[in-house]
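Annex B. Sample input.
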Amino acid sequence: MEQRLDSLEPPEPTTILDSPFPFEKGTEVHFPTDVIPISQVLKEGTKIPFKVIKSEPNYIRPIYEENWHSTYWGGRWSYIPSRIHYSLHRIFPFYAIGISAELNFQQDVGIAFNTATNETDLDLYIVVFQTNITDVYTKGNQVVVVGTPKRTGVEVINIKTADIYPSNKEKYLLVQLATNGAELDYSLISYQPPDFWLKLKQKNEREKSKKQ
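Annex B, continued. Sample output.
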């Protein structure tokens, strides 16, 4: 029972204002510094293609799912602050880099979808709830997903990182969900180049050759 409690709540009473995930602490350091109004991104930025890989217009986002219970996989997805964190947002960007990371992401957002791997053409997946996506624009470190809000539904799209040209690759991408030029939600994610997998493969080969 004590172990289950550890997976549900912080060890002591506390107030959490930012992300409940330790690996996301200090993200303000990586927040892009050249952020411009969404209206300017739509006017001066580049409209980029996107592919809808999952669309369920009548999907109702559950308040709770069975895999979030503390007895499921040792409470891997049951931590209450993280559950609240996810429920506060509508947009979730994600790279399919690593089986464990992909499993955690899809369990946390409650949506399963197919991903693909290409050595020289990396995809950035974006899960969006309760929105009919119409366009995607980018300028600098911003990616603006434009859509019409609705009460139900989920869409998963992918865009190519080759279509994104960050003004500062050391800073995160600011992925914004917008309607009528106003921000509905946002999320941060690092920029990964199109040839991510190729570079990783070459790195592993170099390390392997050193050990021989």
